[in-house]
Amino acid sequence: MLSIEKTLNAWVQRWRERVDVPLRVCWAVGEGGARCWDLGRFETPRVTMTVRDVGALPALLAPSLDTLGEAYVEGRIDVDGDITDVLDVAHALVAAAREPQRAHGTLHRLVKAFTHNRSLDRASIQYHYDVSNDFYAEWLDPAMVYSCAYFENGDEDLAAAQRKKIDHILTKIRLQPGQTLLDIGCGWGALVMRAAQAYGARCVGITLSQAQYELARERVAAAGLADRVDIRLQDYRDLEGTFDRITSVGMFEHVGLKHLAEYFGIIRRHLAPDGWAMNHGITTTDAHDGETPDGGGRFIDKYVFPHGELPHISTVLRTMQEGGLEPFDVENLRRHYVLTLSHWSRTFEAKSERLRRLVPERIWRIWRVYLAGCAWAFEHDQISLFQVLCRPAGRSAHELPWSRRWMYAAAPGAAT
């Protein structure tokens, strides 16, 4: 114990010299009660980190977002305090830890190149989305839309902003009554249900998540839309037929960097010659398609989205063109995702006790860190969110509207 205490005393002294953070660190390994140190020189501690296992020491001595996150998820440390303060303290520690390295050049981000196939992608999707429908329902909006909302004025509640997001997409693709719509990665069915109810479309939604598939079909049937909405448990590579409109919301992050051109090519192959498509997805802000810095990407890959890969928007546009689609309009919704994730994280925190009864403690910890951490990353421009509207390449330019005004008016043929 004396050697551990000596190590921790030295560690606290080094950190006090580097950074002033409102953090109290308590060592609670073994018997004899906890021994605590305050790292802040001037601030009163707002976050308490309690070390429960000696295996957490490497994360303290050389902190990164993935090592700290892993220590928390695996129960080696506990943290108490407002989750936003927890994230601020974690990032401050990580930034201070890498400070001496800056003189040696910019830290490189790892660029992953996973091999994707049907079985691997299905397993990855089901790992993330099949946690529990009841779990997701607790902190999502009533329609269970699990993607960036659209805050037209900034003061909408989450349910209204998610409905506006769906309408924003369906307006952009100029969805008309009687047209066919394919939604790749349909989640729990909110977009296709809205497209059928309010826009008069005939819809197909596909997902690889068994839990989403089952609940989406139940919701479609309960809404009396089974004759207009078909939910399928299907891989996008197994699609058949042609559709007037195609949407993909929060799905292409699972495709893989090496497969983006193929993915967009499949969309082009199934899109009618005069059709429109919309890709709504998360991107990295690293121009070389690198993962988020300081270990954040490694944590996400290990615990949240296995084999997920984020392209830069330039890569999205290039591979979209390679796939035979002309990017027509690009909109950055990064700040909208900051607000969306803040809503999710606040609700998650408010319902923590109930959520902990719905899933194992480890899962609860993963999602707690993930939601708050992503809000921080979007706020600080480490990741972004783009909607890209596109059409088959080679179409006449005279067929296109002259201004963007139509994207913000009622969609042609949309019901009120």
Automatic annotation (TrEMBL):
Enzyme nomenclature, EC number: 2.1.1.-
Domain DUF7884: from-to ranges: 39-91
Name of one Pfam family that matches: DUF7884
Superkingdom in the source lineage: Bacteria
UniProt GO MF annotations: methyltransferase activity
Keyword match Methyltransferase: yes
Keyword Amino-acid biosynthesis: no
CDD domains linked: AdoMet_MTases
SUPFAM superfamilies the record matches: S-adenosyl-L-methionine-dependent methyltransferases
Keywords linked to the UniProt accession: Lipid metabolism, Methyltransferase, S-adenosyl-L-methionine, Transferase
Record-level GO BP terms: lipid metabolic process; methylation
Family the entry assigns: Belongs to the CFA/CMAS family.
Protein name as catalogued: Putative fatty acid methyltransferase
Originating species: Tepidimonas charontis
